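One-letter codes give the sequence; the fold follows as tokens. Both lines appear below.
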Amino acid sequence: MHVAEPPLQRKIIHVDMDAFYASVEQRDAPELKGRPVVVAWRGSRSVVCAASYEARVFGVRSAMPAVRAERLCPDAVFVPPDFSRYKVVSQQIREIFSRYTDLIEPLSLDEAYLDVTRPKCDLGSATHIAAQIREEIKQETRLTASAGVAPNKFIAKIASDINKPDGLFVVKPHQVEAFLADLPLARLPGVGKVTDAHLQKLGFKKCGDIRAANAQLLEAQFGKWGKRLHELAHGIDDRAVVPERPTLQISSEDTFAVDVPLGACNDAIRALSIKTWQAYQRELQRHPGRHARTVVLKLKTAQFRTLTRSLTEHPFPVDADALYARAVSLCERVALPESTLFRLVGVGVSGFQEDASSDPGYIAQLFDG
């Protein structure tokens, strides 16, 4: 009688480039090495895309307003972002990953999960593979990467941050519970500042506290998320590395130089509709069987309140002009006083559906267009 072999223990690597955008700038402009570099446009409306480690010493962080970064580090060198250049380097790094596995799940230009349970090469262990990948990145791009090795994605991502920059940290299966015991709950995915504060009020500060709690009580308190929280505290994460994550939304947005009333947003909505439509067409070329169904308008007030309005209506826009018409019509559903000023507007498409082209209504739309 044939006895099925037990499933292999997953071996996951999370690779995270060190201060990626800023490091590319320092690499390509040697005079920036050792200096605090902030990748951002100057101005009151700009935010920091990345900060070198020299700038982080002063408290500068990504997503921080550029004016605050300038206050924290007056000697910082501001460099406007060049995403096309960063993308080229990212593709170079991706090619290095592909030498070891086809199971690569990119999270952004500068980080990815790799499943090396069954690698293409025989290096003996996931730790050796991670070390070799980091060395090849350093040799071929002159950039450094940090990596975490673990039995699942959740722990690998946390591990990659421990020895940054230019570090490697490994959590073996038998080390998981000890590794997580004193981990602050704020490090868990889904635990933001508000949730963390609420958990602390209930006496939960570390994963060990959650682990000791009754799973049913957590589920009663937090619903399904309470059960998930209990699983994470025990190091349970069964998510697979998914090489091609489906696109959920394609969007473009713009922050105004000065706050404007809603009626002054039309030109920006038109420009963003064109940009979004072009990106949507590129997505259709990559995945012809997936089509968007929903148009989304995003607005942010001068007080940083974010509003979204969406419309799922057949037929879907057939060109950028039709997308603009649909997006600008959503302005009518913004029930705010006329005196309200806005600092940002965005246009997106979402509600992607597989094989929409097989739908008779969609085919009729193409002919009508």
In short: Residues 356-369 have pLDDT under 50 and may be disordered. Residues 127 and 251 are 38 Å apart (CA to CA). The radius of gyration is 24 Å. The chain has 14 helices and 14 strands.
